[in-house]
Amino acid sequence: MIGFYNLMEGVIACLLIAGGAFAFIGSLGLTHLRDIYMRLHGPTKTTTLGVGCVLLASMLYFSLVGKGPSFQEMLITVFLFITAPVSAHLLAKSALHQKLPRDPRTRGEIEELAEDEEHEANGDRLP
């Protein structure tokens, strides 16, 4: 039985280290990426995965130490994985609505910004 606990402690430690690494990489992405459209990737992808790993480690630990499975962390993880993409989508839509400029080195075209630039070049007024 001692071998099982040692194995689970190793798994929990790996999950905590992975969670911390993902959260750190997401934070670096948030500070170092060039414009808001690229900055959305840091907190929504890597930081969400990092917090998910930490919550999974917490769930395993308290299930191992406690009397039974711990479902609070699972509910938090599900809520996080549902709300993170929705909030990122809302941030991107508000950036498009405010017509925030993008870095010229950013690859790809944003359709909504290209349409607005065409209308402005033709002298059309948008509502």
TrEMBL record:
Transmembrane parts of this sequence: 6-30, 42-62, 74-92
Keyword annotations from UniProtKB, A to Z: Membrane, Transmembrane, Transmembrane helix
Regions annotated as coiled coil: none
Superkingdom to which the source organism belongs: Bacteria
Basic and acidic residues composition-biased segments: 100-110
Region described as Disordered: 100-127
Entry-linked PANTHER family: ANTIPORTER SUBUNIT MNHG2-RELATED
Name of the protein described by the UniProt record: Na+/H+ antiporter subunit G
Record organism: Modicisalibacter tunisiensis
